[in-house]
Amino acid sequence: MASPPYAASPYVLSLLLLLSIPAVFLLAPRLLPPKTLPSIPDADESDDLALFRRAVLLSSTPSKNPSFSSSGAGVFGRRRQQQPKVAFLFLTNSDIVFSPLWEKYFAGNHHLLNLYIHADPSTAAAVAAALTPSFRGHVIVGSKATQRASATLISAARRLLATALLDDPSNHFFALLSQSCIPIHPFPTFYKTLLSDNNKNPQIGRNRNRRRSFIEILDNEPTLHDRYYARGDDVMLPEVPYDSFRVGSQFFVLVRRHAVMVVRDRRLWNKFKMPCLMKRKNSCYPEEHYFPTLLDMQDPQGCTKFTLTRVNWTDSVDGHPHTYLPEEVSGELIRELRKSNGTQSEYMFARKFAPECLKPLMEIADSVILRE
After folding, report:
1. What distance in Å separates the CA atoms of residue 291 and residue 299, rounded to the nearest whole number?
2. By Cβ atoms counted within 10 A, which residue in 221, 265, 275, 286 is the most buried?
3. Looking at residue 68, what is its pLDDT?
4. Number of domain units in the chain
5. Can you give the three-state secondary structure of 235-295, one letter per residue?
6. Distance CA 207, CA 351 (A)
7. What is the pLDDT of residues 318-335, one digit of tens each?
8. Residue 30 maps to a domain
9. How far is CA 263 from its chain centroid?
10. Residue 287 within a domain
11. Whole domain around residue 363: which residue ranges?
């Protein structure tokens, strides 16, 4: 009995199946959303926005001298000081192993500084318990978990900035550091560098509100293209055109007006908080892009475009810089790390040091690190 004219033979079905496989591979990427890295939870975003609004509102409150005042109290009851303070912002996911060295660095200078620590929630209690009274660190309440290759590191830095803005109106400089950073000059040298930068820049004059931020800003980094498109083609447009995209170190020293600028921003943040594509995660370093791009777009003349934190990238592994080991620590190393490339101030901090370096660093703290 003959088969119906509309019945396809097994050979025809097999041929059609084989032909459809390439079509599936071609159409699937267009029909299915691309895989991305985890995004920031909405609850974290809401908490941050409330904090940022308070910080901006306080910083926008008019006063006779918005930067420094000899009277009045801060949000947490602190008296305002006439001298500008440095807010040291530690971003850590573990204990601050070099706190004994930092204690020596801060000794005798607490009237000129405040400390703020954003610790991973899993270690926050341990970090707080380990702090000695002389360290005087303020562990941020409401710290959120952070992870590499995500905008959570930007959020953590913004949280630190907002908290420091709220805590003390005398905080004028905001130095972001990690648990692997160490000082390589005594505090008075660092403080003098911050205050004297305007002497090198006549266009700023003696207006303390026009002092510059020390943040690295690069526009010719070899991986700039891959980093810009890490979230997908044209995703950054129109807010961040390619020609405006910048790269820089994630560690910086911002002046107060720039700290407020970062906390107030929504426009660029809506772009940089978008998760990177999973297939481009090796080019996803949002914390190295957001801050230099934002400041270069809004106040390029207000930035030195170099950082005060020395990092050794000569033998980086998986995106991490060289980690100094105990056998490398010496007075000669500290003096070498201080040197600039001739176009900027000497470096004030350095990273990345292994925890085991604490003992040899303490041995040369008084004779080298904290001595000019």
Report:
1. 12
2. 286
3. 43
4. 1
5. CCCCCCCHHHCCECCCCCEEEHHHHHHHHHCCCCHHHHCCCCEHHHHHHCCHHHCHHHHHH
6. 32
7. 878 999 999 999 999 999
8. no
9. 13
10. yes
11. 42-59+79-369
